[in-house]
Amino acid sequence: MAVILVMGASRGIGRGLVRACVARGDRVIATVRQRADGEALRAEGAEVLVVDVADPASVSGLAWQLDGQEIDCAWYVAGVWDAGTAAHPPTQ
Ligand SMILES: NC(=O)c1ccc[n+]([C@@H]2O[C@H](COP(=O)([O-])OP(=O)(O)OC[C@H]3O[C@@H](n4cnc5c(N)ncnc54)[C@H](OP(=O)(O)O)[C@@H]3O)[C@@H](O)[C@H]2O)c1
């Protein structure tokens, strides 16, 4: 059993990663920005932490909560799709 951290797990790629890792028997620590989004993930077998990656204090809080925890694999998929171009680069 691996210990997997998925940051940005409320939907999209992160949600899919949580499901896949829980299904194969991993211990999954999933982060969401909105506390309410954690309930469905808990029901699916993940442990849930609340983190806004754009907020340094929130990220520091995650570091404290994970202190001493060995993580085998961390997926950082929290983000915003911005279909920018070279002429109009992403701003977020
Ligand atoms: N899907 C693709 O084909 C593709 C291709 C290339 C790159 N990417 C990149 O891969 C990442 C994930 O893609 P996706 O399709 O899964 O996107 P998505 O469905 O839009 O999901 C984005 C995830 O990031 C979270 N998030 C956004 N801002 C956050 C913040 N400040 N703090 C914490 N969580 C935050 C969202 O949480 P909330 O629900 O709270 O908003 C959500 O869980 C994005 O960065 C995207 O740009 C995706």
Protein structure class: alpha/beta
Shape: globular
CATH class: Alpha Beta
Tell me the total number of β-strands.
4
- Count of alpha/pi helices: 3
Which topology does CATH recognise? Answer: Rossmann fold
- The helix fraction, in percent, is 25-40%
**Any low-confidence stretches, pLDDT <50, length ≥5?**
none
> What's the number of domains?
1
Q: Over all CA atoms, what is the radius of gyration?
A: 14 Å
Strand order across the largest sheet: 3-2-1-4
**What is the first-to-last residue Cα distance?**
35 Å
For CATH, the homologous superfamily is named as: NAD(P)-binding Rossmann-like Domain
Q: SSE order, as H and E? A: EHEHEHE
The whole-number mean of residue pLDDT values reads 93
Bound molecules: NADP nicotinamide-adenine-dinucleotide phosphate
Strand coverage percent: 15-25%
Report the CATH architecture: 3-Layer(aba) Sandwich
Which key phrases capture this entry?
92 residues; alpha/beta; Rossmann fold; 4-stranded parallel beta sheet; 30% helix; binds NADP nicotinamide-adenine-dinucleotide phosphate
